[in-house]
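Lab notebook page, bench 4
Experiment: in silico fold of construct C2
Operator: M.H.
Input chain length: 337 residues
Purpose: comparison with the prior construct
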Amino acid sequence: MSYILAIESSCDETAASVCNDGIILSNIIASQKIHEQYGGVVPELASRAHLQAIVPVVDTALKKADVNLNEIDAFAFTQSPGLIGALLVGTEFAKSLVLACNKPLIAVHHMQAHVLANLIQSPGKKNKIPSFPFLCLTVSGGHTQIVLCEDYLQMKVIGETLDDAAGEAFDKSAKILGLPYPGGPLIDKYAKNGNEKYTFPEPKIDGLNFSFSGLKTAILYFIRDEKNKNENFVAENMEDICASIQSRIISILLNKLKKAADETGIKNICIAGGVSANSGLRNAFEKLGKKEGWKTFIPAFEYCTDNAAMIAITGYYKYLNKMFDNLSVVPSARAIF
């Protein structure tokens, strides 16, 4: 048996997970509420919150997995990308465990881990997982990519955003509407009861790349103009506005994903990342998959947003391939995938 203890601290969640031979035994997440009053993540506050949470989070993950620290075979951590101060906390804590236990250290790329979240298995049941090769649309607050996965650790980005990520488009649109942070889930909530009444432009970007900055600007000007006509426009039409915004973001994502599937001929298609928890995207993705004859895969909700289980599963496959790192490894805010 191979036990991997993983730590995730790339942004505003402190998380730890234990996996055994690829089966996730625990996945503990401590979210930071302090950022809500500032309308976004404050890097310095995130780092301090990680310092406070990391010991109890790791301890809880070990206890839930019923594993002793000395039984751990390797320690994995998020090396990149993310907030550098937040990453430093997880990196140095993982190094301290390696020194104390004399076990291997495994650095993990956060976006690679989001992709491999589709391979997570839970105790006592067999989850449906994709076979290789597969395509994965990874959508989060900081990244939007289409990834071609040929093997567990062989991946290639074939499409990515040229500016804002899809998660940013959701959150910035929510801010324009006066919704509190994080606004993306609130747009999803309001959209469920709304109609796609308003039309927003879809950018014409060559290839498989994305762009969301123009959409954000169009939404800003639309709301400005409508409020000049009726100052209560947003409050009176919140559900329809959110449904229209969400529909356009989803169409941008899925139109490019369909193009990638057509060009590669691949029928095993996944989505991952924080935005893959969006109910509208999940439903539209599965509907498109049925129409196109795809085999579709979406991680469970707890593995969509930032979590340590995805770091653990990635660390496990790197462990099998003896892809270890020495103590000189450092975190990187923008490491290339």
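Observations: The chain has a mean pLDDT of 95. The two ends are 30 Å apart (CA to CA).
Next step: discuss at group meeting.
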